[in-house]
Amino acid sequence: MAQTRSKLKIKKGDLVQVITGAKQERGGDRGKQGKVLKVFPESNRVLVEGINRITKHTKVGQSQRGTKTGGIETVEASIHISNVAVVDPESKKPTRVGYRTETVERDGRERTVRIRVAKASGKDL
Prior knowledge:
This is Large ribosomal subunit protein uL24. By secondary structure, this protein is an all-beta fold. The chain has two domains: about 10-85, SH3 type barrels; about 90-125, no CATH class. It contains no helices and ten strands. The strands form three sheets. The protein has a six-stranded antiparallel β-sheet with strand order 6-3-2-1-7-8, with no helix packed on it. Strands 4-5 form a two-stranded antiparallel ribbon. Strands 9-10 form a two-stranded antiparallel sheet. Strand 2 (about 35-40) and strand 3 form a beta hairpin.
């Protein structure tokens, strides 16, 4: 039986807000907003700029010019897509995503186009 993958409503470049997890006062990321850098549809995870930062230890080496590379660096780790929500462009608060269909005429032919819309305000995303 072929496995079907659900269509994700969060895309690369969207402004999202973390809606679950530890509060910011306790060192968590809940309430923080960031831009989606990459989407991993096979594991339902997203990489968000400035969110879920971890310390990564990389092996020390040398580049072509002789400069040292490696050591301890902080990088973003992926977060599950259910823990983030798209930010409404009007109110700057998290909202759900809906779709509106429009017919657009291109090259003499009419096509139906699905446009992503914020459920709270109705504005285009």
